[in-house]
Amino acid sequence: MTPATPTTAVSLFDRRPLYFDRSLRRNRINRFCTALVALFAMIAVLPLFLVVFYVMLQGGRLIGFSMFTELPPPPGLEGGGIGNAVLGTIVVTLLASLIAIPIGVGGGVYLNEYSKRGLFAQFVSFGNDVLAGVPSIISGVFVYGVVVATRLFFNQSYSAMAGGIALSVLMLPTVIKTTDEGLKLVPQELRWGAYGVGASKFVTVMRVTLPAAFTPIATGVVLGVARAAGETAPLIFTALFSPFWPEGIFNPIATMSVLIFNFAIMPYEAQNELAWAASFVLLVMILAANLVSRWISRMASRT
Amino acid sequence: MTSERLPAQEGAVAAPAEDLFTLRRRPPAERLIDIGFRQLTLCLAAMVALVLLGIFVVVLQGAQEAMGAFGLRFLTTSAWDPVNGEYGAFIAIYGTLVTSLLSLLIAVPLGVGTAIFITEDLLHRSIREAIGLLVELLAAIPSVVLGLWAIFVLEPGIRPALRLLHQWLGWIPFFGTEPQGPGMAPAILILVVMILPIITAISRDALNQVPIELRQGAYGVGTTRWGAIVSVILPAAVSAITGGVMLALGRAMGETMAVTMIIGNALNFDLSLLAPGNTIASMLANQFGEADGIQVSALMYAALILMLLTFSVNVMAKWIVRRLSLRY
Predict the structure, then answer these.
(1) What confidence score (pLDDT) does residue B165 get?
(2) Cβ contact (<8 Å) for A41 and B51?
(3) Which of A48, A81, A94, A110 is most exposed, with the fewest beta carbons within 10 Å of its own?
(4) Do B144 and A38 touch (CB under 8 A)?
């Protein structure tokens, strides 16, 4: 009577030992799937290495001092540099940052510090997500319609300012989002402490809350600026291009990204080489900004 | 002990406090600054809504003329004829949908697989973090640089493979033309490179948020690692992953530069993936600067279609995340 249960148990173990058996079907499937995702991960990082390798190879050998001091040559001629485009990218990105950062930080402060997450705030953060999803070329179309076609600034159509505005439309959602998220991380006790010693809300935000959230906001903003610096689509018909040195912010201006686009499809060797050189400069700038901002945020979170 | 001491201490502090501190009224300047600052941030926040509304109004107003002239015929005809003023965006709409959906088809398994690889404890943590960082850096490469790379490296590199594809599967209309340089197939591959980081990053976050108890429970009833992943962890994360995939779809539809440089910007319709095609975004990038008259309006109409497509995809992504969330 009693041995009934042990016998079934013993027979179960006889049939199927509890040792790990590599040849079992489920273990074979396990190994196969692991190998498969390892392969996928390798495929996923492959393009980065290929792109960076080629840009370093093709663009790196062209980089010299004259690359930054000379103008691009007329089609068909050799030599020249991308000095005006490097300067132009800096100017346009700076303009975009000057517009987008104050607006974005202010909007983020409103969302997190002032709003009670009511209907308006919900609408703003929803609109922010939608704006982040708007294709970059559409923001170019928008600025073309508002600024370029109407000749808003001193009767100038294409201008560096228009390009800066178009880029700022792209940066705005990122800045608002990172400010909002960064301020969420500030402990409530800090605000209470500031109110406790008699600070007004304005002083609390400016002197306590924003400085406390500086690192996450700065990291996000740097990433957003780096992203905007490489954007091309909004600039093609707002900032246009210019083969000359920048002539103020109300005239067309050359940028590296538009230079790459224009010169890549030209049938001239010299122009193609300049496109590679501009890619090199742009890529080094953007990857450096990315790595530095990540490094800073890691340093800050450790201390 | 503490409860006894506390009142005494409070009394001790409170007594001199009356002499040292006086209640002060807030000076009007301070109050004005406070109110002013609040209104200022409110206005800045409203800028988002204003810009969004502005984009919509500008594009809609620009498209008015073409909408009146072509109506819904614009969506189904493929004439693009500046001489006769006859426009239809079918090629571009077809190209936008086909390139984005096919690139998604390739990028989703790759991205989710990579995310599983870097969230499971298969390798040492530092190596997995390094892979994650590399994939994120891929997202930082400007689209125009990827386009340049696609023109000079990717497209010549894959042309032999595409030619083989044409030889073997040429009887399928999708591979019916001889590959000769720019085309939809390289555009799809470069789109994969661009949306892979989004899918990987969002899937990784989703998988990391699955409670450890679910995994422990699965292992406790004796499943293997992949049994747990497929039947417990992925279902728990599926809503966030789907949301990320939809976001990636929106990005793929609106992606401009790299696609413009490699897709060939065809004006004639061809079902084949190996032939040159066109997308709405690349059409805008190529023609908007030089267009005038009703062509501008037709391009605005196309831009409106693109906006509505990406908008609905993004809203659907939000809806999916909210509705499909498993409650555990």
Answers:
(1) 82
(2) no
(3) A94
(4) no
Q: Evaluate whether ipTM surpasses 0.90.
A: no
How many of the other CB atoms lie within 10 Å of CB of B196? 27
**Given this model, what pLDDT does residue B8 score?**
44
Distance CA B188, CA B192 (A): 6
CA-closest candidate to residue B203, choices B110, B99, B65, B97: B110
Number of C-beta neighbours around residue B92 at 10 A: 25
In this complex, which of A41, A102, A115 lies closest to B117 when CB atoms are compared?
A41
Give yes or no for residue B328 having a pLDDT over 60: no
CA–CA distances in Å: residue A136 to residues A95, A238, B251, B259, B300: 17, 12, 9, 13, 14
Q: Which of B305, B273, B286 is nearest to B99 (CA)?
A: B273
Query: What φ, ψ does residue A129 adopt, rounded to 5°?
Result: -65, -40
Q: Are strands B80-81 and B86-87 parallel, antiparallel or unpaired?
A: antiparallel
What pLDDT is attached to residue B104?
A: 93
In this predicted model, what pLDDT tens digit does every residue of B167-216 receive, in sequence order?
A: 888 777 777 777 777 888 899 999 999 999 999 999 998 998 888 898 89
Per-residue pLDDT tens for B3-59? 444 444 444 444 455 556 666 777 888 888 888 998 999 899 888 889 999 999 999
pLDDT computed for residue A105 by the predictor? 92
Taking the C-alpha atoms of residue A98 and residue A168, their distance in angstroms, rounded to an integer, is 8
What is the nearest CA distance from B201 to chain A, expressed in angstroms?
12
Residues of B in contact with A294 (CB under 8 A): 133
Chain B residues within 8 A of A257 when measuring between CB atoms = 142, 144, 257
A25-60 and B90-119 are packed helices; what angle lies between their axes, rounded to 10 degrees? 120
pLDDT at B172: 78
Our CA-based measurement puts residue A233 at a distance from the nearest CA of chain B, in whole angstroms, of: 6
| Residue A155 one-letter amino acid | N
- Could you tell me which of A240, A237, A229 has the C-alpha nearest to residue A143? A237
Best probe of the A interface among B24, B30, B44, B203, by most A CBs < 10 A, is B44
**Of A139, A202, A260, Cβ closest to residue B34:** A202
Q: Please, are residues B253 and B306 in contact by the beta-carbon 8 Å criterion? A: yes
The DSSP letter of residue A74 is P
CA-to-CA distance for B109 and B116, rounded, in angstroms? 10
C-alpha span between A8 and A10 (Å, rounded): 5
Which pLDDT score is estimated for A302?
66
Tell me if B145 and A47 make a contact (CB, 8 A cut-off): no
Q: How far apart are CA B190 and CA B261, in angstroms?
A: 10
Cα–Cα distance, B129 to B134 (Å, whole number): 9
Cβ neighbours of B174 (radius 10 Å): 17
Q: What is the nearest CA distance from A1 to chain B, expressed in angstroms?
A: 30
What's CA B267's distance to the chain center, in Å?
A: 27
